[in-house]
Design a protein that fits this description.
With 345 residues, the protein is of the alpha+beta class. It has three domains: 4-122, no CATH class; 125-263, Jelly Rolls, CATH 2.60.120; 272-343, Phage tail protein beta-alpha-beta fold. It is 37% helix and 29% strand. It contains ten helices and 18 strands. Strands 1, 2, 3, 4, 5, 6, 7, 8, 9, 10, 11, 12 and 13 form a 13-stranded mixed beta sheet that branches. Strands 15-18-17 form a three-stranded mixed beta sheet. The longest helix has 34 residues, at 89-122. It is elongated, with a radius of gyration of 29 Å. It starts with 11 loop residues before the first helix and ends with a strand. 23% of the residues are buried.
Length: 345
Amino acid sequence: MKSYTDYVPFKTEDFLSDSDFKAWIATPTPESDAYWRGLYRTYPHLKEPFEQARNIALGLESSWVEFSGNYKNQLFDRMIPHLNNQEDEYPKIKFFKWAKFAVAASVAFLLTSGILGYNYFFQSKKYQTEYSKIESITLYDGTVVSLNANSRLEVPSRFEWNNSRTVHLEGEAYFVVSKITENSTKKYRKFTVKTLTASIEVYGTQFNVYARNNQTKVLLDEGKVELIENQTQKQVVLKPGQLIVVGTNKTSSKIIETLLEEARQMTSWKQNLLIFDKVKMEDLKIRFQEIYGLELILKGEAFDSQEFKGELPVNNLDEALLILGTTFGQKPLKDGNKIYFVPND
């Protein structure tokens, strides 16, 4: 058995992965019972995570075992040893039904708690935002992720998270990463965002990641970011205000110094705004498709060589179309997933 001091920093998931704890759950003894009682009496703050781990472990154990008919009958027999001594047949029947229900309910509870416990600690989480919807997500360590519309974030299970703070992103997100230290070394733990074309590694900082159309764009607001290109394994370190773009081709990425207004345009979606400053129609179409899920059909003299400058609300498609229609001097018409523009009557 470990020294009690070894358990001081333990949380629920730490107990569940501890070999001594698992051995006690499997085969408890009076000596081991006394040991664990002594632990949370010595360190009262451990009682809650210890009891949570115990309840979950017992539930998990039940979910690993298939309850056979014989086993359920044995449970039932243990609950009604005095049934045959009852003289009144009617109470006997009522008690029989109640006991049968109680056994079934107990088994169902154990199975449910086991499944919930498994999902809570061992299953990864996937977040998917709809078009025109932004979601704020708080991770296990307090890191806050703002997930833009039409984006997907995969977060590992709590157990995996203890070993690696790594998430996978498809779409766009803004990260405010918490600084976390290792219990043993007191060094900061690395936080990694993986995309199709790059890995972004930080220890505690704020940055925006765009991961669409086979490219990754990273804009750093605060702290320091190290980016590793998947194809070339080239490592690049960003400073605040710098932007880097990584594609799937073998062309080397380049760091770009951004102006304050340019950076604001890239991250304005967090305030439910898309800001455009004289962008080409093709770029407008791409961004509109990403956020609203609709294709803009921009053909004809009204759009030739034209550029768009303005702001569109992320969470209000009707208002966005009204702004575009007013700017182009044409009426937007929706047909399926396409938006056409026709002259005003």
